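From the shared-data thread, chain only:
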Amino acid sequence: MKYYDITFHELSGRAVIKRAIPSEKEPFEAWEDACVKVTAEQLFLMVNETNVILERKFVTRTDVEEVKDPIDTNQKRKDEFTTIVNTLSNMGF
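Structure, as tokens:
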């Protein structure tokens, strides 16, 4: 079992990050395990007890990064929403 941080980037600049998703799939397919349900038009996610629906036509990129087992490292990271403005401000722009 591997664990992944999966980021769904939207056309609007918003991003949804799902942290420490357990998956036995290859990284190119692990994003499916971050979703509660996948349809041809939408991705259904649960983000910190909030239901989020992403329109697939607006998802521009999905990043998958392998992370260490959260139980072994005692990580307390939560899923999060970000925007391009927030990301750039954190970078100092």
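The first strand starts at residue 2 and ends at 10.
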